[in-house]
Task: structure prediction
Amino acid sequence: MLNLDHTHDPYQNGQLIAEYTETKSNQEAVFRAEQLMKDSPFVAPHRTPHPSRYLRSLISPLFLTDRDKHILPLTKAFVSEQDEIRPSWFGRLTYEFEQLISRVEKVDIRTYGAVGDGIADDTLAFKEALADGHRQVHVPAGTYLVRGIRLPSYTILTGDGKGQTIIKLHDAAPKGRRLITNQNYLLGNHHLLVERMTLDWNIERIGDAKKSSTWGNHSSCLTYAHVTYGWVFDVDAVNPGLHCFDVSTPYYNYNGDGARANLSSSFIWFDGLTGSGFGDDGITTHHSDHLFISNCFMRDPSGRAHATGFSNSNGIEIDDGSRDVWLFNNATTRCFGGLEIKAHATSSAASTVKIVGHLSVDDHRSFNFRHIGHHQATDPTSQTAYNIVATRLIAQTPQYTALYQNSKPRALIVSAYRNVVIHDFTVLGDPYYDYQEQPMIGIQYKARNVTLSQVKMSGFRRAKTDIQIFGGDNRAEDVRLMDVRIEDSAKHGITIGPSIEHIRLVNVAIKGDGTVGLNAKSEPELERFIATGYKVPVRTHST
Result:
């Protein structure tokens, strides 16, 4: 089994992913995934009018926006000659990057009195070097203590590499301090690049504090809030109280499903980032649009932003109100969630997310897509949890974690989301690990129009079932399992709950020595289905 540690190079993610997946190229994989979405019974977003939400948008225009077009459309991926995935708007981002490069003056931080010895306070030197922007500030190898850095528009901050250039929060910095952020949250900033360095939040300075963060998006290593055209390349973030890297609005918004915060960020690219020891999430996004996250690796959260044993600390989290987010060749390990796409109950769900390549190793829940507060039969149906296309995913050995007590491991969960395609999904279990009679893939809680295609699954010998489609009053609906192979795995291969009207299994082969191959309490449509080795290959009954 694969093990990822602090020496892992995130630019090797793509090569590792290719070794586990069945599609021959990213181009082949994303083309097929997009076609599956096109061919599915697409559920159009529907918004329920809510007068109070409109009134709030008038009263608080700085913090809340109410948009009619709250779900952005899925657009086709661009694939380069090197088989690299790029967003449909990548040309625009490239043009703006060229504008940034052409409009900055190169200076050196040492010219402004920075010492970089890990003892002197270099805050003033950074402030003077950055001036009013239009500067590329070179930060040579060394450890620079600062009380926080704020970037004006048209700024490049360049180090000599991870582990060589280290920017570290001063011992006197308050717990809520962000290490690097943009200068003006109200008016916004644009054209910012941070590259080739390590960011150390210096968690040791807060001692044994029970909680490592304060509120909102404070206490992070790098926060872009109300930024247009931003880049972060080849940066390591260490032990932040909250997040390693955050693309956000200045203030989170919890004014209800369908509402989004104003002052959002847009057109941001994170590439080659690594992070560890984070109190909440490694990379997170909120209420922002047109985001690209590639070749990143997040590992080993501390979970200290939460109460002990209740830490929903994800490697990468696409959170409340995020729209049009692209993820390419990322990896996570030993997190609560490897990749989570979600929202809180009183916020809009992240929507229109495209994933090409993600390696999850030893995460508790490898891939977790949900809109909290919209799962039960008595809950309102989510107005914003729509549109996820994912391909070339690997979930290796999801496992229990001390981060969150009594939570159950999963390779994939889809809850409340509509229009979801998962294509070319490799799921590997440890046959000796005790999964305590749990299902490993769950399609549940009012999910609609979900397609699992080209799934290869094995090794969950001590799990109850490999794939479970949950029924009942809050059942999943319109689910398709296509080109699925399960070998030597759970006691039950596929379990289908009651009252599901539309479920289809096409070209499914499951082989094992467990109890039941297909255990169906609803009547699925079967086409080229075979189950061998089980005591009961197929059990169908309705209740």
